[in-house]
Amino acid sequence: MVRIDETTWIKAGIELSDGAACLGSVLTVERSDWSTSVCASDPSDFYLHVTVKGGVLRLQSSTDGVHCPCCGCAHFQPRPPTMSVPCSGRGNRATHVTVEAYGG
User: Fold this and answer.
1) 3.30.1300.20, 2.60.120.200, 3.40.630.30, 3.10.170.10: which CATH number matches 2-79?
2) Is 14 helix (H, G, I), strand (E, B) or coil?
3) Low-confidence ranges of the chain (pLDDT < 50)
């Protein structure tokens, strides 16, 4: 989750939709927009890249950490965002998260 304030934020992750694992994201800039896309590969190990630069937020996903197609872009106010990493595993499985870089 990247949060500028209570009316400007994005959250993204894997979710189940109609029984299929999907990359889902909710973008809120005054109003919320929810989008999903079916995962083409194993959703148990993936990367999310979130970049906020020059007032633009860019969301990318990857299964190999190298090829990172853009999943969405949005205007974000050019203020330092707050970042949180809420994570959950399925059942009793552990969830591993690594934050590689954050400049907030």
Assistant:
1) 2.60.120.200
2) strand
3) none
